[in-house]
Amino acid sequence: MIGIRDNLIDRIAEVQREGRLGEVEGLEISLAGAEDKVAQLDAALKPTVTHLGLPTLVQIAGRSNGPDVPS
Asked: What domain of life is recorded for the organism (predicted)?
């Protein structure tokens, strides 16, 4: 996908040099789509945090901060 984006950048520069300005707009739209896709792929590769719901020490011990009450 990065190769496609780089190719579009090169093609935009080429058509601008050659004066084919009508093609620039279409290529810029394609470039925007390619850049969005690269951003999506980058975001998908970022590590995420998964909450495992592990109990706290207080929950494991079954104790509270209150006084012990005999039963």
From this structure: Bacteria
